[in-house]
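Collaborator request, handled under Task 6.
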Amino acid sequence: MAKLSFPTASIKEENNNILYFPVLDLNGNLIAQEGTPLSKQFLWKIIQVAPQPKPFLPVDGLPTLWSDLNKAISDFPYRDLFLNTKTKTQLVAMLKNAQLSSFVIDGLNFFKDKDPDTYWHSLHVFVLTGYMAMELIRLPDWERHFAVMGPLHDIGKINVPTEILQKKTPLTQSELRRLHHHSVAGAILLTCFHGEKDLLGPNVALEHHERLDGSGYPFGVTISNPIVEMVAICDVYDALISPRPYRNRPFDLRTGLEVLTQMTVEGKFSTDTLRFLISIHRTGKPDYKKVAFSLETRGTPPEENFYGLVN
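Structure tokens returned to the collaborator:
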């Protein structure tokens, strides 16, 4: 098991990476200037000057969010994936104990009002990654990291205009760059508002679009942590099988898993995470270690899909 690491491990000084857009909090306060070099020293400075984090609140003490999380578990297809009563009970218990910062809670409320797709996506990734982690993670203290597994990964999208998030046609190059900004913005915001209390959360935000073969963004580096990889594959899975404004319908479950299979064969995800996702789709929920997969494609992708197309 890789050690939990701060996101600075992903930033190479020699790449001269800079912020292409400013990072603002929900109140419009400037956290980082456009043009700021993304260095290890810069992110550590944010931690050093960050305000003392406010108390984190348990999820089950937030009635609306707790109700929505229970709905997320019951949404299609998750209600069918979580049929193992013992594991589902354990998942619900950990959801109850998960603690979120007031910053993340405010961010989720922002998405629920302004961009419901991002809100429900965050909750689905939260529950699915948690379910996967219970089977694949063997760290003695991993439960204290449970709350970073989903609701934090897209928090940087508060810095992306909703018209870009909800656009139905291909993005322009400048819009795509603004969208990609959300991973860096999320890492900076979580570094600022969580400080040293949470060093994994910024890593999740920063790297959830990176891939094991180094083909992702924002830096094109290898994912540094197995928890981040779980968030990454669950992020893609839910994005495929959920409604999105840029395509006429979601991917069906077979086709979505076929897309993930192809990505895994290309080296973007590990076979264990793919096998686990496949196993919970099968009758009887077999041991993921015994699950085989093939490259045969029998699914039907959406007829209209503008994802990845740029004007």
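The cover message to the collaborator said: "The two ends are 41 Å apart (CA to CA). Strands lie at 23-24, 30-32, 57-58, 99-100. Please let us know whether this matches your experimental observations."
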